[in-house]
Amino acid sequence: MTTASDRRIEAYHTLQRQCREAVHHGRLDRAGVLARRALLVANHSGSSSLFHQATTNHSMVLLELGALAEAEKGLREVVLASTDDETICRAAFYLASSLRRQKRLGRAHFFANSAVEKANDLGDAIWRARCHNLLGNIELNRGGLGAAQDEYRRALAIWESQPGDHRFALAIVLDNLGYCLTLQKRIREGLPYLARALACARQVHDLRTEAECRQDLAHALLGLGHAGPSRRNALAALALAEKLNYRDILQNCFYILGELAAQEGHDEERDRWFTRLQTLFPDVPHLREFLGLFNVSDLLTFH
Fold it and tell me: How far is CA 211 from CA 78, 145, 240, 246, 288, in A?
């Protein structure tokens, strides 16, 4: 006989499965709704283990949505209170991800290393690969491009050694590695990684990663002076970002398109793109005018 508790647990797992599918296809607004429902179901189940899992998953979705401070909430409590190593690993990972994107890089590195330790204890190659990719992101934000590249290559080697279909994860780490090489002025070396990342993302219909790959390809091609292909990728990324509300990609594409116009001497078009970028930063006066005067493409990082 099925009890009310059994039905709640079944409903929870159904919601979580649907949530993961939505994230994998870049349908982040839907994923947010499903994650909130799963959190409510877990809370009413009376199971602390289920609630810890739901809190961690909800934070993952909030990170994808760009709600960084909200994503951080509750994760320290999960790390301290959970008795399940996999849940602790996941919570430490997403806490590190949130802290990284808030530029609190020292604490991000601490929790990322905690997640690696748990992944090693579990003998879980999948989580080890994710943690090395995250450590690469942290090193990238610190300006340690060589260290970031090493972490991305560790993650890539693990993913490529695992049986099964890992194109969703491969697209992310390949894009990160290609972008890291671009920042090191090794653009031609990075382009094949970016192209392979885009192919993987499109094959699995991951619209978010597709937008990131196209943005990064546009940036790399801009650096090579290939205006036409750069513009095509930037406009394709922009279309996805506008449709699916990817604010970070919106602002990056506005910048790339403005810089492309500037390099071609199209001042009015440049000003239109930089004006759109300015609207996203109302607290940064004269951003449009500054970008119109100075090329800062070598100073920016998009990840």
Answer: 32, 23, 6, 9, 24
pTM of the model: 0.86
Is 67 exposed, middle or buried (CB count within 10 Å of its CB: 0-12, 13-18, 19+)? middle
CA-CA distance, 165 to 186, in Å (whole number)? 29
Taking the C-alpha atoms of 268, 273, 277 and 279 in order, what is their torsion angle to the nearest 10 degrees?
Answer: 60
Q: How many CB atoms lie within 10 A of CB 126?
A: 15
Q: Kindly state the tokens that stand for 291.
A: 């970008």
Between the alpha carbon of residue 228 and those of residues 152, 174, 197, the distances in Å are 29, 23, 20
d(C-alpha 121, C-alpha 101), whole Å: 27
Question: What is the tens place of the pLDDT at every residue in 236-287?
Answer: 999 999 999 898 999 999 999 999 999 999 999 999 999 899 888 887 776 7
Token pair recorded at residue 279: 């609207």
